[in-house]
Structures are given as structure tokens and as C-alpha cells.
Design brief:
The structure is a single chain. By secondary structure, the protein is an alpha/beta fold. Helix content is 24%, strand content 32%.
Length: 455
């Protein structure tokens, strides 16, 4: 069996903690490990790591690689050059398996953002579904609903045979589905490689046709070809059109962590049914969720309320309105507001940086480089940089010449100068970086060498 983890989502309903460049699958929301890492470990209990493929977006590749690298050296990551929803992502991963392993094996597709604790029952369900997949069916895994949720898809079935899929109904329709025995669509699928490819050919020939021109012999996908793909989910591309689908009830617990309400539901609560995470001081609140990442949040007399504080944004809403957070995210995106895209603190494979000040023509960061790590050999076309060492020792390679800097010492990096910041020493390194220029963007990085495969 092969496993495919869909890890390219934006997690817009979990803003402001989830951002475009650091989405929810990378966050530690309900456990010590991230949702992505938990998903990988779950699959790795019955699928060898070299058979687990994570499909993500190019902009998430470095963080995905860093997190999975902590668990296995053998995991495979495919980077889409642009997000095109689940159908193209699944088609791409299936073609990769066919071309690189030359096998028509069963493939299990799972989202990277599910919360499942009972792994034994999960594995039991997967084994039960193999029989249907071996017979040439697409298998979907249904969850028995507990309330009329409007944010999920629903499955109508009879004797395991799927009769219809419906995406995200209104409240009245969802209540009717509940009474008629429909199940939630878990977003987990299983099929043989040949089965799903035949379904693409029949129901979505556009994907099948474009896929023939994409070379999957390596993990670098052509932008020009992939950009032609339709932006469409597997549900719309295949599942709603096919008569070849069986449903198996997911025996384990299951929670789609797609909103702050769902995070509240799976979190431990106090005597007043509150969930407080971080530095929170409360008086007499009930049934509320408060998350503090950096500041003291004081609350008095809240009921059914969600508050999420990050370094640069605060969300406050009623608990039953958390599905609408996506609208805030989309508005910020339309306005080109940076709080939609990135946090003040950004994690990288070598450490992290925090933006502490910015204005027209300048930006100031604190850069933290872990022991034994180094930034890529790079240059910038539009900005100069001034580095001051705060703690630790820095090795700076500038235009081919090495400079060793101790705390208090500084160096200037000119526009287009080829340089690298390194920490080969035994203590973590922190520097202040002052950028000056007309364009101060992470896109203004030309990489020549990189130990994390980003060049």
C-alpha cells in the first residue's frame, strides 16, 4: 500500500494562527507534534515511510521537509508549483507512484489536518476497506454525524454503495440529511492506481490529458504544464459523477480541525467548559475558547466566545461564527495585508526570524540560527543588509571571503552581493538584520547553494 498526504491547504478558517505561508497542518494545535507529523506517524504504523508521499505547495516545501525530516529520512515530498485543489494533487501523486514504482498498488489518500486518537480502530477500518479497493472500487470513509454541520460534505449510501455526494449544505438541508441517515465525508479515500486513473479519463478528461504532459520521474513539477490544470476538488471532478464508489464507516474517532470551534471541541476544558491556552487571566467566563501566543489576555464574563491573540492580530467572535473567519482571511488577501500571509515570527529549517520593525524602505529582523545550521548562499537584487551579532558567533561568507564575527561586531551586505550566514559553532546565533531598499520581499532571494534543497 502507498499513502498520500494532502498537505497543501491554507487553513484560512484558523486565522490568525494559520497563515498562507505557515498553514494549520504545520501547527501544534492539540498535541506535541504538528497535524502533519501526527498524520505521517499514523500512516507509518502500517505503511513503510518510503511509500508515504506528501503533496504540498512549493512555498510550503521547506517547512514540510523540515517537519517530516524529524520523523524519517525516506519520506517523499512532491511540490506543486501552484495550488489547484485536491483532484490535480491526487492525480499527480498517483502518476508519480506509477512512474517511479511501476506498480498498480492500493493508494490511501488522507488530509494532513485530521485529528484522530484511536489509531488501532483507524487501521482496522483501512484493512476492512482493502477488499473493496482490490475489486476496483473507489472507497470513501464515512463518519456518522452527531449534529447538522454545514461545513462538511455528506454521503448518501445503501449497503455500502454510495448513491450521492453533497457538498456543504445549508442548515435546513443538513438537518434533513441527519434524519435520513447520511454520513459525513471524512476526506479519506482509497483506490488502486489503475482505478482512479480510469475514473479521471472518464469523468475529468482535462486532468488526464494535461497529466500526460507532466514528467513525474522527479519531484520537480513544470509550472507551465501544471498551471493548465483545473482548480477542482476530487469530489466535483470524480466522486459526484462516478457509480463506482463504496463507503466504509470510519470506526475510529475523527475530527476535522477546520475551525476554532472544532479546536475547542477536542481540547480539555475547565469546570466552566472553557479552554484557555497561553497567558490568560479570566473571571466568570463560560463555554469559551481563549488562545494567547505572546501577550496576557484578560477576559471577564464571556460566553460562547472565541479569542485568538498572535503577535500582530487578534480574532474575537462568537463560537458559532468561526466558519466565517475564512471571509476575514479572504478580505485581508484582497487588501494585500501581510497578516494574512505570514507571522511576525517565521520558522525556517535553519531556525527562525522575527520582524521587529518595518516602514517605507526598511525592515528590521532578529535572526536566530541553530547550532550547525546555515542559510543558503544567496543574493538580493533590490535590498542591502546590515548585520549585527547579538549573541553567539557568526561565520559570514561574503563574495567568497570568510568573516568570523563575535557579539557587537557587524558587517554590510551590498545589493547583489553573494553571501551566506552560518553557525558552525557550539552556541545558538542571534543577529539583528536591517534591510534597506525599495523592495523588501522574501521573493527577492536568489539562491545558489542550499543544504535544504531550496536552490
Amino acid at each position: 500500500m502507498f499513502g498520500v498526504i494532502l498537505a497543501g491547504g491554507s487553513g484560512s478558517r484558523l486565522w490568525p494562527l494559520s497563515r498562507e505561508l505557515y498553514p494549520k497542518q504545520l501547527l501544534n494545535l492539540c498535541a506535541e507534534k504538528s497535524l502533519l507529523q501526527s498524520t505521517f506517524e499514523r500512516l507509518n504504523k502500517f505503511i513503510p515511510s518510503e511509500n508515504i508521499i506528501s503533496v504540498t505547495n512549493t512555498k510550503h516545501n521547506a517547512n514540510i521537509r523540515m517537519q517530516l525530516g524529524e520523523l524519517s529520512e525516506n519520506s517523499i515530498i512532491i511540490s506543486e508549483p501552484i495550488s489547484k485543489n485536491t483532484a490535480p494533487a491526487i492525480a499527480l501523486s498517483v502518476k508519480y507512484i506509477i512512474e517511479n514504482f511501476n506498480k498498480d498498488e492500493i493508494i490511501l489518500v488522507v488530509p494532513s489536518d485530521l485529528f484522530i486518537e484511536d489509531n488501532e480502530k483507524f487501521i482496522q477500518t483501512i484493512k476492512e476497506a482493502e477488499e473493496f479497493a482490490n475489486k476496483g472500487f473507489i472507497v470513501t470513509f464515512g463518519v456518522k454525524p452527531t449534529y447538522a454541520e454545514t461545513g462538511f460534505g455528506y454521503i448518501c449510501f445503501e449497503n455500502n454503495k454510495v448513491k450521492a455526494f453533497t457538498e456543504k449544505p445549508d442548515t435546513k438541508t443538513a438537518e434533513a440529511y441527519l434524519q435520513n441517515g447520511y454520513f459525513w465525508n471524512s476526506g479519506i479515500f482509497m483506490f488502486k492506481a489503475s482505478t482512479i486513473m480510469a475514473e479521471f479519463e472518464h469523468h475529468c478528461p482535462e486532468i488526464a490529458s494535461i497529466l500526460k504532459n507532466i514528467n513525474c520521474s522527479d519531484k520537480s513539477i513544470s509550472f507551465n504544464e501544471f498551471d493548465k490544470m483545473p482548480n477542482i476538488s476530487l469530489d466535483y471532478a470524480v466522486l459526484e459523477k462516478s457509480n463506482n464508489i463504496m463507503m466504509v464507516e470510519l470506526k475510529s474517532d475523527w475530527k476535522d480541525l477546520g475551525s476554532w470551534k472544532s479546536i475547542y471541541e477536542v481540547s480539555p476544558k475547565d469546570n466552566n467548559n472553557n479552554v484557555f491556552i497561553g497567558h490568560v487571566l479570566d473571571k466568570e467566563s463560560k463555554n469559551s475558547f481563549v488562545y494567547s501566543s505572546s501577550k496576557l489576555v484578560a477576559t471577564i464574563g464571556l460566553e460562547d466566545t472565541v479569542i485568538v491573540e498572535t503577535e500582530d492580530a487578534i480574532l474575537a467572535c462568537k463560537k458559532d461564527k468561526t466558519q466565517d473567519v475564512k471571509q476575514i482571511y479572504e478580505t485581508l488577501k484582497e487588501q494585500h495585508d501581510g497578516t494574512q500571509k505570514v507571522h511576525k515570527t517565521v520558522y525556517r529549517p535553519w531556525g527562525f526570524y522575527t520582524v521587529i520593525a518595518e516602514g517605507k524602505g526598511f525592515q528590521t529582523k532578529i535572526i536566530h540560527v541553530n547550532v550547525g545550521q546555515k542559510l543558503s548562499v544567496q543574493s538580493h537584487n533590490h535590498r542591502s543588509e546590515h548585520w549585527v551579532v547579538l549573541s553567539g558567533m557568526a561565520k559570514v561568507v561574503l563574495e567568497g571571503k570568510d568573516h568570523i564575527l563575535s557579539p557587537g561586531h557587524s558587517i554590510d551586505i551590498g545589493v547583489k552581493a553573494i553571501h551566506s550566514l552560518q553557525n558552525p559553532f557550539e552556541e545558538d546565533l542571534e543577529i539583528i538584520e536591517i534591510q534597506k531598499g525599495d523592495i523588501l520581499s522574501e521573493d527577492d532571494i536568489i539562491r545558489y547553494e542550499d543544504m535544504y534543497g531550496r536552490a
